[in-house]
Design a protein that fits this description.
With about 300 residues, the chain is an alpha/beta fold. It is about 40% helix and about 20% strand. It folds into two domains: about 200 residues, Spore Coat Polysaccharide Biosynthesis Protein SpsA, Chain A, CATH 3.90.550; about 100 residues, no CATH class.
Amino acid sequence: MNIAKSYVLISPCRNEADYMRQTLDTVIAQSIRPTKWVIVDDGSTDETPHILAEYASQHDWIKIVTRTDRGHRAVGPGVIDAFYSGYESINPDDYNYLCKLDLDLRLPPHYFEILITRMEANQRIATCSGKAYIEESGHLVNERHGDETSLGMTKFYRISCFKAIGGFVREVMWDGIDCHRCRMMGWIACSWDEPDLRFIHLRPMGSSQQSIYTGRMRHGYGQYFMGTSLLFMTASAIYRLNDKPYVLGSLAILLGWISSALQDKPRYNDLEFRCFLRRYQMRGLLVGKKKAIEEIYQRQSHVS
């Protein structure tokens, strides 16, 4: 493989037997295959270890890292802990690109080729992705992620930028903090909604092993931790009123933020970051997120 197109996938997983074959098969079928794929089995108790062993025996570029069973599924910090178990097993300098990839996805065949091509054409792009869709009654439904973020389930990174921002924070809102940190440093974080970059998310966004409302409240806590203001959080919850579960899902997000504030839970310990975030959010409420992001990129266009 051309070294400029060398990329490594790291996939934390736990009990993904229902979905993982679709992800495994669509990665194997990629037009540009990963140089290495490190899959971290985070203590699975279903058929996941057997499926991983089957695929690893057939493809020498697939490596399995096994962690002990903690007794429960852990999102946020647990997932990132598992990710780093895989990251520590490689030398990141051997690759140009890195992707944290979930095992509950179905990817289009040219997915990684297109991402690499765009990042090679624009050196300011630090992280990018396509868009997530779910299947409902034979139709594809957009999960409605903003264009200003790379999606956490397929977060594709330029290795040099990933190292420069300090990697992922081990907390629920890791996949928002990283994109804002990229912008603080003058880089672009983005995603594109195009047919060849649309992938199927087999598990609904924001769901939980307990209930979808638990997942929504967790998102509210994550926004609080990151530094999001109550005004912006309220506006965001209103915007998502027509997302399923209608109304109650938005209320759960808002409740997650408010309950975290009432408990005086800790916030991301970077005041400069939180000030940057609040300025962007306030500007976004005034002129729209797209315009606010464009203004940031214009101000920082001199940064290489």
